[in-house]
Amino acid sequence: MTFDDRLGRRVVEHACTYLDGIGERPVRATLSGDELRARLGGSLPAGGDDPVEIIDALAAAGLRGTVAWQGPRYFGFVTGGSLPVATAADWLVAAWDQNAQMFAMSPMAATVEQIAAGWLKELLGLPEHWSAGFVTGAQMANFTGLAAARHRLLEQAGWDVERDGLFGAPPIEAIVGEEAHRTVFTALRMLGLGAGRVVRVEADGQGRMRVDRLEAAVRGGTGPCIVCAQIGNVNTGAADAIADIAPLARRRGAWLHIDAVQEGGTCWAGGTGWHGQAARRISICNWSTNNDDIDRSAEAILTVCADPT
Ligand SMILES: Cc1ncc(COP(=O)(O)O)c(C=O)c1O
Predict the structure, then answer these.
(1) Using CA positions, which residue lies closest to atom 16 of ligand 1?
(2) What is the pLDDT of residue 142?
(3) Domain at 135-306: CATH code
(4) Which of 171, 174, 274, 282 is most buried, judging by how many CB atoms fall within 10 Å of its CB?
(5) Neighbours of 52 (CB within 10 A)
(6) Reported confidence tier of residue 279, pLDDT bands at 50, 70, 90
(7) What is 5-96's CATH number, 3.40.50.150, 1.10.10.10, 3.90.1150.170, 3.40.640.10?
(8) Which of 183, 184, 266 to mutate for ligand 1's pocket (most ligand atoms within 8 Å of CB)?
(9) How far does residue 80's CA lie from ligand 1's centre (Å)?
(10) Which tops the pLDDT comparison, 179 or 130?
(11) From 181, 186, 240, mutation site for ligand 1 pocket: most ligand atoms within 8 A of C-beta
(12) Cα 283 vs. chain centroid, distance in angstroms?
């Protein structure tokens, strides 16, 4: 295959124009769906168009049809921004067009993933032998974490959920703060644990799970159980008191799942020592309403990581 290098140059020009103007343009899109459809849609073309014209048309529509969330005046959802080098690497990835399902299909993709996972473990001070996987976002992170919980709890109860499914399986009790993110409920639904069966624990005015109510919910409980906590609440940034929740979950014999997506603003550097752990908080998510909370929660995460029993 030959690649028309006019395309590459054009894409870089358009990308630079877009990013250079991101701080000045309106944050919201200034083209409606109908206007975008009128520009880009119409009936199926009988033949192919000039590739450069296609890129030009997309770039022109994108200038006004996108939301400028990398810009300095975007205060909407908690979406992260991409570094220039990551954007450029992404273009390389598109050119490589790998099927990265296993090592033999793409040694490059598999190795880069292994390296990134190793660095993350170093950064977080996690045991080297732990395995790590990258998911598409917090929805799939919740799903994956809760799938691991379902597997482990049922295995402990003598049930092979992958082989035998959930019909006849010992019931799993899922205990969730009432202000848990909706993706937790979606994950529970997708895993056959049913959003309606969930035990919802009352939250305080900041959306934190109330520890006294959790204590009451777990008291006397037996059988497989998952406690879902979060750091932090999508509306307030407030973090559940993991340091108090973790011992309650442990006493109940429950799996503790932490939806820590908002902790994404907190970064850890190894070897510098923080609260006696080989890690240090070097920046904090500015969504937090209470730094003490985040401190206590982050410390508890480290403790939980270091002692996953
Ligand atoms: C606490 C929490 N969990 C999960 C999610 C879902 O994240 P994603 O959009 O990456 O699936 C969000 C998104 O804001 C969140 O705040």
Answers:
(1) 234
(2) 86
(3) 3.40.640.10
(4) 174
(5) 14
(6) very low
(7) 3.90.1150.170
(8) 183
(9) 12
(10) 179
(11) 181
(12) 18
pLDDT, tens only, 147-185: 888 998 999 999 999 999 999 999 999 999 999 999 999
Residue nearest to atom 3 of ligand 1 (CA): 181
Identify which has the larger pLDDT, 246 or 198: 198
Average pLDDT of the chain? Answer: 83
How much distance in Å is there from the Cα of 56 to the middle of ligand 1?
Answer: 34
Q: What is the pTM of this model?
A: 0.81
Rounded distance, CA 195 to CA 260, Å? 20
Q: Copy the structure tokens of residue 116.
A: 């990134």
Ligand 1 probe mutation, 69, 79, 139, 297, most atoms within 8 A of CB = 139
Q: What are the structural domain ranges in the chain?
A: 5-96, 135-306
Pocket of ligand 1 (CB under 6 A): 78, 137-139, 181, 183, 230, 234, 259, 261-262
Instruction: Tell me the three-class secondary structure of the chain, residue by residue.
Output: CCCCHHHHHHHHHHHHHHHHCCCCCCCCCCCCHHHHHHHHCCCCCCCCCCHHHHHHHHHHHHHHHCCCCCCCCCCCCCCCCCCHHHHHHHHHHHHHCCCCCCHHHCHHHHHHHHHHHHHHHHHHCCCCCCCCCCCCCHHHHHHHHHHHHHHHHHHHCCCCHHHHCCCCCCCCEEEEECCCCHHHHHHHHHCCCCHHHCEEECECCCCCECHHHHHHHHCCCCCCEEEEEECCCCCCCCCCCHHHHHHHHHHHCCEEEEECHHHHHCEEEEEEEECCEEEEEEECCCCCCCHHHHHHHHHHHHHHHHCCC
Q: How many angstroms is it from 182 CA to the middle of ligand 1? A: 8
Ligand 1 centroid from CA 185, angstroms: 12
